[in-house]
Design a protein that fits this description.
Layout (H helix, E strand, L loop, with lengths): L1 E5 L21 E2 L1 E6 L21 E5 L7 E8 L4 E9 L4 E2 L11 E2 L22 E9 L11 H8 L3 E10 L5
Parallel strand pairs: 2-10
Antiparallel strand pairs: 1-3, 3-4, 4-7, 5-6, 5-9, 6-8, 9-10
Length: 177
């Protein structure tokens, strides 16, 4: 298995960036990586799209700051679609395996923009050919305690005072031909 990692970007300004909680204390920087078996991760793996079965991608993160208890993952597209929220991930986990399904817990998973719980695989169309996924991970110093019906804005609001570390990975949805 090959792991492709990117140093996470923070403090980016502009309207095109995904919403990020802002009220918490000083936050550690986490590294977020996308795992793809045998293929460099230059875009979202085909297996995570409608064309390849729509399985949630494998993610890895670290190092976690001292005091981390739980993690929250949020995946949105630059085009605006909410693809995934997952939380209740204990700090002793260094990632999530490929193919997490809604019935599998932990983690808890929220309602995506299709109105269902779990991973929303990008499809062509309506996903633009140059779309990009913004994958965010937040390290929390306490449990989030939110049911799967909690929307992403409410999750981020509840998480904000608990965030002690965060990271982001931006990745094209579709491979360049």
């Amino acid at each position: 298995m090959w792991t492709f990692g990117l140093l996470l970007l923070f403090g980016l300004s502009g309207c095109a960036n995904p919403p990020t909680p802002t009220q918490g204390a000083t936050r550690a920087t986490l590294t977020l990586t996308l795992e793809v078996e045998g293929v460099p991760a230059t875009s979202l793996p085909r297996a995570a799209t409608c064309e390849g079965g729509g399985r949630a991608p494998a993610l890895r993160w670290g190092p976690l700051p001292a005091g981390a208890v739980e993690l929250l993952v949020v995946v949105r597209a630059r085009s605006g679609a909410l693809h995934w929220t997952a939380w209740g991930i204990t700090a002793d986990q260094d990632g999530l395996p490929q193919g997490i399904v809604a019935e599998q817990a932990p983690p808890l998973q929220g309602i995506n923009d299709a109105g269902i719980i779990g991973w929303l695989a990008p499809c062509r169309p309506p996903s633009p050919p140059d779309d990009e996924l913004w994958m965010q991970v937040f390290a929390l110093n306490g449990p989030l305690r939110a049911p799967p019906t909690t929307g992403v804005d409410m999750l981020l609001q509840r998480a904000d005072p608990l965030i002690i570390g965060q990271g982001e990975l931006r990745l094209p949805v579709w491979a360049t031909p």
